[in-house]
Amino acid sequence: MKELPERPIFGPEDPRLNPPNPPEIRPARSIAKAVSWRVVGTIDTLLLSFVILSVLGPLFGLEGSAANNARTAAYIALTEIATKMVLYYLHERAWSRSRWDRTVDDEGRYRAGRRRSATKTATWRIMASLDTMLLGFIFTRSLATAISIGGFEVITKLVLYFFHERYWARIRWGIILEGEQEDSQEA
Question: What gap in Å lies between CA 79 and CA 86, rounded to an integer?
Answer without folding.
Answer: 12
